[in-house]
Design brief:
Elements lengths: L7 H18 L27 H4 L7 E10 L4 E19 L5 E3 L2 E3 L4 E3 L1 E14 L8 E7 L2 E8 L5 E9 L2 E11 L7 E9 L11 H4 L5 E9 L2 E3 L10 H5 L7 E4 L8 E5 L24 H9 L3 H10 L1 H12 L2 H6 L42 E4 L2 E4 L3 E4 L10 H4 L3 E9 L5 E7 L5 H7 L3 E3 L4 E3 L4
Antiparallel strand pairs: 1-11, 1-13, 2-3, 2-6, 2-9, 2-12, 4-5, 7-10, 8-9, 10-11, 12-15, 14-15, 16-17, 18-19, 18-22, 19-20, 20-21
Length: 465
């Protein structure tokens, strides 16, 4: 299939959504401390990876994404589709010998960087425009492919002499985009749009192959942008009441569609492997791409700036994008860093009881003052767990698997802990502050008030309580 060029209007509208789509594309691309040698950078590509069918049959990974959403197209409407993904480009390092021959090496050390083997991400895009009226029944299929390629880049030393080279290899990949639409029964002209992105690579996983071998033939961080030039999409997250049944009947596999672009408009959809809210946006305080969304920008910038010179050399040699993060952290002006400290997105008036036939009066004690409510006492309050009172001094068994909101929960499940306090938040929620048994830092946690916090349904009373 030949990729088509969008009209200027469609291109302008899709550009509105690409800033967020770029964040999806590079989610977790390279993690702090941005070095290839870091353990967490050895297992690459976590989101939206569409592997070859031969690997999908062997591993618990998918070779397709399936999107269904509702749209209200006008007569003669056209649908623009943009499928975006990264292609793993395998980079190896070779050293030049005295005889001029190049041989593989683990690293090349330069004054400002240390070059090592690494999988780079090459951006790929498949674009197409189809009339909505032509999508009835089985719809249409658009195959696409990219050929294998190899490139070399010479590496020179301080004196300008060639000391090695980088060899970049891309494998052949192929895929298909399947699009169809169907009218729904009802008083409104609503259609269910189906878009499926498939990896159709014929690569066969050899015996003993691992995920690393399959990645060059995969579509990485795959996601889809959709745009109607006449008409609108319905929110899949917060649909109108009359459409809730039809939305619930939609199937979305390994991806989730949300309205994109400015709030108040509904001509754009981003179907992402990362669940987002409608009209997602990049925080205006963000100084640039940091690629590691498991960290807070402020902490990440400070940690990066604090890396040693040798660690920064390794990061710069890992990837050009990692090098840009190092430079960003090193040159970030104080006022930009200060903006990362926090931002108020909205304000609401907090008032006290309303007097009869009079205005609301401010409370005597601010709602955010920990001592404002004398009816609670973290040291003596209790909460019932399984019909048994749990209070400060109680022993409990941690069961965070019920929520699993943090990766560290995997290590705490089943551990015994001491309840240090029962806390109430301003929204009426109850939290248990605990220290884990056998934690050598428990005394320091108590002294500093730095506890672990669980909700009552995440613990069980210990038998000896």
């Amino acid at each position: 299939m030949t990729t088509v060029a969008f009209s200027s209007g469609t291109e302008a509208r899709l550009a509105v959504a690409r800033q967020v789509a770029d964040a999806v594309l590079f989610e977790g691309y390279v993690l702090y401390p941005y070095r290839a040698s870091a353990a967490k950078n050895r297992l690459r590509w976590q989101f939206g990876v569409l592997v070859p069918p031969s690997w999908s049959a062997r591993a618990d990974e998918h070779d397709f994404q399936h999107t269904e959403c509702l749209m209200e197209p006008r007569a003669g409407a056209e649908l623009a589709v943009e499928v975006r993904f990264l292609r793993a480009q395998r980079r190896t390092v070779e050293q030049r010998g005295e005889d001029g021959a190049f041989t593989p090496t683990a690293e090349l050390r330069l004054a400002d960087r240390v070059l090592v083997a690494w999988d780079e991400g090459v951006e790929e895009t498949v674009t197409l425009v189809v009339p909505v009226d032509g999508l009835d029944g089985d719809g249409t299929v658009f195959p696409f492919g990219r050929p294998a390629a190899e490139e070399t880049e010479q590496v020179t030393g301080d004196d300008g002499a060639v000391i090695g080279r980088l060899v970049r290899r891309r494998e052949e990949i192929s895929g298909a985009v399947r699009i169809s639409a169907a009218d729904l029964d009802g008083p409104y002209r609503v259609r269910r749009l189906t878009v499926t992105v498939e990896n159709t690579s014929t690569w066969t996983a050899p015996p003993g192959a691992d995920r690393h071998a399959a990645l060059p033939y995969s579509l990485v961080a795959a996601h889809t942008l959709l745009r109607l030039d006449a008409g609108s999409f319905l929110s899949m997250t917060d649909p109108p009441e009359w459409a809730r049944g039809a939305v619930a009947a939609c199937r979305n596999l390994h991806t989730w569609p949300v309205l994109a672009g400015e709030a108040g408009r509904a001509d754009l959809v981003l179907s992402s492997p990362i669940i987002l809210e409608d009209h997602p946006a990049i925080a205006p305080e963000s100084p640039g791409a940091l690629y590691d969304a498991t960290e807070i920008d402020e902490i990440l910038a400070l940690r990066t700036a604090a890396l040693t010179d040798e660690e920064k050399r390794e990061a710069r040699g890992t990837d050009d994008r990692a090098a840009a993060v190092i430079d960003l952290a090193d040159t970030m002006p104080p006022d930009v860093l200060e903006r990362l400290h926090g931002a108020v997105r909205s304000l609401r008036e907090v008032t006290g009881p309303k007097e009869p036939d009079g205005p609301c009066t401010p409370p005597d004690t601010p709602w955010w003052d920990p001592g404002g409510d004398t009816g609670v006492d973290p040291a003596t309050d209790h909460v019932l767990v399984g019909g048994r009172p749990v209070r400060a001094g109680s022993r409990v068994v941690l069961r965070p698997r019920l929520r699993r909101t943090d990766a560290q929960d995997l290590f705490l499940d089943g551990r015994r802990a001491l309840v240090e306090a029962v806390l109430h938040d301003v929204d009426g929620g109850v939290h248990l502050a605990v220290t884990v048994d056998d934690d050598p830092g428990a005394d320091i946690r108590r002294e500093q008030g730095r506890f672990l916090y669980f909700q009552p349904d995440e613990v069980e009373p210990a038998e000896d309580t």
